[in-house]
Amino acid sequence: METIRKRWTEIDKRTQMLLKFAEEASENATCHSRKLGAVVQSADKGIGIGWNGAPLGADCTDIHGTPPGKCPRKHLKAKTGEMLEICPAVHAEIRALVSCLKAGHDTKGATMYCWCGGIPCKECMKEIADAGITRLYCQTEKTDDLKLRDDSIYYNFELSAKIAEHSNIELIEVYNCD
Fold it and tell me: Cα–Cα distance between 142 and 102 in angstroms, integer?
């Protein structure tokens, strides 16, 4: 399945609302580096909400003893995609899936809406596929003429797109979300 790219004005109002809901979820992010959000609308109409950050009840700075309000990776001057093994953050997509499952909602055939500036990393995409998500809307800052970014081995967005394709996930990148 080919990645579909649409302008904000080309998607229906309900999809816009759920993407904005994912943007609102990103405001809960406790990550000191990025603010991301995700919403899962399950086939049984349940909703799971997620944001990125330390596991519930924890703080990244508590776990690593870094200065308050400072990302442990940035404190150690890691570049994008480096030293991810020390990052204790739960990604927004995973938290949204867990939220759905905790509430007893089936994710098979569900749709996910991500406010993440691109498509999910390959680690999240594997979990999204395994959860049975069949459609994935991603807010992106890219325009229709830009290619997928490949920042690192972990954040290999090209591989993420291939995972989505081989898992029959309809991947829709939405740009110009202002």
Answer: 33
pTM of the model: 0.86
- Tell me the residue type at 132: G
Q: What tens digit of pLDDT does each residue of 54-108 get? A: 888 777 766 667 777 777 888 888 877 677 777 888 999 999 999 999 999 999 9
- Three-state DSSP class for 171? strand
pLDDT tens readout for residues 119-152 = 898 889 999 999 999 999 999 865 443 444 444 4
Dist CA 118 CA 39 (whole Å): 15
Among 138, 139, 128, residue whose Cα is nearest residue 166: 128
* Distance from C-alpha of 42 to C-alpha of 127, rounded to nearest angstrom: 15
| Coil vs helix vs strand at 160 | helix
Distance between CA atoms of residues 1 and 29, nearest Å: 31
Provide φ and ψ at 13, rounded to 5°.
Answer: -60, -35
